[in-house]
Amino acid sequence: MSEAADDDHIKLKIKDQNGKEMFFRIKRTTELGKVIKTYCDRQAMDPKIVRFFCDGQRIRGSETPAELDMDDDVEIDAMIHQTGG
Question: What is the pTM assigned to this prediction?
């Protein structure tokens, strides 16, 4: 594979609150909502109760790695939304 073609993709890791990791390789132009949906499907979780963060910033499903200027091997944190105290 050429280096230019490899630049079109990004590897990312989603890590949950328990430290469990799941890895993805997507195009930089792919909406992160697709990754979020796949992650939630594999974990049997409702996407409505999970929040995703990269470097403290909340990720929205319509955003892409290119828009967020993500580097290769970026880590995304998956946090279950909790209400009340």
Answer: 0.85
